[in-house]
Amino acid sequence: MMDKRILTGEQIIVEVGNLKIGGNHPPIYIAGPCSVESKEQIMETAFQLKEIGVDVLRGGVFKPRTSPYAFQGLGIEGLEYLKEAGKATGLPIITELMDEKYMDVVAEHADIIQIGSRNMFNYSFLKTMGRLDKPILLKRGMCATIEEWVLAAEYIVAHGNKNVILCERGIRSYDHYTRNTLDLAAVPIMQKETGLPVIVDPSHGTGIRELVKPMSKAALACGANGLMIEVHPNPPCALSDGHQSLTFEEYEQVRRDK
Do 38 and 238 contact (CB within 8 A), yes or no? Predict the structure, then answer.
């Protein structure tokens, strides 16, 4: 690992409202649907998750899909629904930003801005995110090495924003049984290398609903600072990632058995 770095491993705590993320603070729980599909869907999800116990409400409104014919999200309309659901429940919200042209409106609405795996290597985008006074969640690129992930975080902090949360979401390998290979060794490595909080996304990390619960427990056991899990009122009818989304009952089991 190169020596000239801002992130030297000194512990950094990221604050989101009253939440303190990282260090010895309790793990945070981020949950919600892959995509905001309607006002009714995100409202139902928000109130159910609030009752179960969640710290941050997630929901995709700009969806980076492999197929151009797949559901691409509701855009600004979905962002407004997500913000309304967060306000109604008192939950901070997180959503992915894909394009700089929507930066101002997403920054106005969201409490945390997510940089997805596809944009981890978009260095001009990372520089722009570094100029924002807003917590950033940086997902690991689907083929990114540890060093590449560290340096992507460096792009953000070097341009002024140290409020970065890292997210291990699995990497591609030769094995196709799971959607990705969840690299839990990266959690303590990245904490040591950067000092930043590291959370785990077992939904994308496995792509299999039945694996989300055991890998959530494994993530917390290895010291992850939180979990990001996809939850949907009716996974078989979800417009995206239904196969890896949990029902409310299944998510409640994850929270209860942590």
Answer: no
- Contact in structure between 228 and 222 (CB atoms under 8 Å): no
For the whole model, what pTM was predicted?
0.96
Q: What is the pLDDT of residues 60-92, one digit of tens each?
A: 999 877 888 888 889 999 999 999 999 999 999
Token pair recorded at residue 75: 């855009």
Question: pLDDT tens for residues 113-154?
Answer: 999 999 999 999 999 999 999 999 999 999 999 999 999 999
* CA-wise closest residue to 83 among 110, 119, 44, 56: 110
Strands 56-58 and 164-168, by their bridges, are unpaired
- Residue 36 phi, psi dihedral angles, 5° rounding: -75, 115
CB 22 within 8 A of CB 11: yes
DSSP symbols for 105-170: HHHHH-SEEEEPGGGTT-HHHHHHHHTSSS-EEEEPPTT--HHHHHHHHHHHHHTT---EEEEE--
Determine contact, residues 89/60, Cβ cutoff 8 Å.
no
All structural domains of the chain = 26-61+72-117+172-256 (3.20.20.70)
State both tokens at 230. 């996809």
Q: What is the mean pLDDT of each run of 10 residues along the chain (258 residues)?
A: 83 97 98 97 98 97 85 93 98 96 96 97 97 97 97 97 98 95 98 98 98 98 98 96 97 90
Beta strand segments in the chain, E? 14-16, 19-21, 28-32, 56-58, 93-96, 112-115, 136-139, 164-168, 198-200, 226-230
